[in-house]
## 1
Amino acid sequence: MAAHHDNGPKPTIVLVHGAFADAFGWAGVITRLEDRGYTVLAPANPLRGVATDSAYIASVLATITGPIVLVGHSYGGEVITNAATGNPNVTALVYVAAFAPDAGETAGGILTRFPGSMLTPANLILRPFPQPDGTMGEDAYINPTVFREAFCADCSASTAAVMAATQRPGALATLSEPSGVPAWKTIPSWYLVASQDHAIPPQPSASWPPGCTPTPSRSTHPTPPWSPTPAPSPT
């Protein structure tokens, strides 16, 4: 798939990771894009809440001049859906095995509508953390005993073990936080569908954002950031 940028500057590619991961997961994608002459930025997603995370990524986007291709993996898809709204420099959105909610939808609600996710209460470990207002929140980690099957079945056991040990948790409350006005309603969008995804099960085509161009991939949840499957290019 291609969204050509002929007769203009190459876009900056911004890669947004999701929960249980960090920006280093995009390492292989970053190398391939930089080899093709693109400027790439992979900011750290705070994983504290939809509004908070989206505002942070939006603040990063505001520092970039020229066109932007914004890419989100997993929960990062919900973040880019909100962060790009109102930014005229974002010329394309790319969802990689990601949430792409409509206004008012929640990640938890989507997982309920399309069952099959292994991100169930039985497979999560919750740990409390202090919030800025003095209350306690809960961070969710994937239990290392099921991490590979649930999150990265394409990866070797040794790689999955390292990913499980270094996973960045997401605030549990994020699952029930409604998404805002979706940027995909006004920005051309692409979606990589991972048919073997055990974290965010593939959704029926009728549920994809209107006008979104899907590309199927016989891979699991972390493709393409961690797996050998090449990433689709929107450029």
Note: The CA atoms of residues 71 and 186 lie 16 Å apart.
## 2
Amino acid sequence: MNKAFTKESDDEEEDELPEEPARPKGTQHITPEGFRALEAELKKLWTVERRRITEEVAAAAAQGDRSENAEYIYGKRKLREIDRRIRFLRKRLDAVNVVHPPNEESSKIFFGAWFTIEDEDGREMSYRIVGTDEIDLAARKISVASPVAQALLGKCVGDSALIQRPKGPTEVTVLKVWYETPTT
């Protein structure tokens, strides 16, 4: 076979994934809990996952021919993915602004607040306003950039707001606002 069609390097640059931007669209704010979660993910990736994958790659490399060694190729790819995520997390942790809950009791909805609203049909829903890194609809955590959060920022108990939804606008009333003091 002609050398022009053979690959002599095992760097596998063609499957390199693009870097994740350190600043996803939206806010740079994060709750203390969200910051700790990102730190914990970084620590686990660096101390546990990366170490384990490195050992697997070393064991696969010791088996001989790396060009057709699936374990070696997969391990190197996984290692690049982990390194990419580590770089992203380091950049992100440097870029975010940790927003602590207010010291005094506040009845207004601001970043980090939990709130309960009632829609026109009488359904009650509770959410928490968080940063873009913390969004988790199953845990009722919504982005500060979401239409619900934008419509309710600064509102107090008893205030009404018009929320734009895909199926049309709806009016909601704020029933309850609270802040949880994070545990360290």
Note: DSSP finds three helices and seven strands in the chain.
## 3
Amino acid sequence: MSTRRRTIAARPTLIARGKPPATKPDSEPRVHLQTLAKAGVPLTDAELAQRLAIKPDEREPFERRLAAMEREAQIVRNRKGAILVAQKLHLIAGRVEGHPDGFGFVVPEEGEDLYLGPHEMRKVLHGDRVLVRKSGVDQRGRAEAKIVEVIERINTRVVGRLNREHGILFVQPSERRISQNIHVAAEDAGGARAGQVVVAELTVQPDGRTEPVAALSKCWAKRPIPGSR
């Protein structure tokens, strides 16, 4: 009985004298952001883990934390997969919403939609995920943005109708929010003829200087494009 009383009595002393459990980096997003900001350059997952002294058994929760921070737009990734602090760069992440007339919008997870003029839309296709920076207000009073980085290309395959003009083949997408025509080299047409509905596998994405290019992987006889009017 006396031994038990001594053991119970000793517990508060041990807790009082002991140090509080250390906060692990994987449970503290602020530490991640501070480390990235201090680095001043994009870091890969491995580089960030090294700077945070993440142990092998902590790697899985660390990766989960990064994924959550990316979903919350606290961090973003460039095309090489390296991590940047969105807020420090005054960048906004969002999805591109195209319009048949050639302009579009960036739709962020929070906040107002940002207008993208036709020149900016030539860098992307409807649905792509981008980083933008506010650039001012257009003539209609809409907040306007410029694309800083395309961080995810959504369109790898596009359905549309094959056309030929002046000897040049191109696909007009059935998705009207993709306003750019997709060029097809004659050797990549796979025997398809103008007027047929085709599946275009994109080989070159638009970047403002280069238009989208594709090779055809499938074609059907002339018929209405699925979903078109």
Note: The CA atoms of residues 159 and 199 lie 5 Å apart.
## 4
Amino acid sequence: MTIYSPSFSRNLTATAQPKRSRAQRFLDALMEVRRRKAAAALAEYLRSHRHSLSDELRHELERRSMS
């Protein structure tokens, strides 16, 4: 026997996130890969060129890459 409770079903639908399509999940994954590659490339650039950057610029770029 199943008991129906309208208040329970309203609470359930109010907190549930809309399901993302397969294409949207694919694009999200693609963007995440690109973001990680860009962060890795920036970190490598900072490691290899730290002597040619001013301290202020290097610290600002490192701060931005951490967030």
Note: The mean pLDDT is 80.
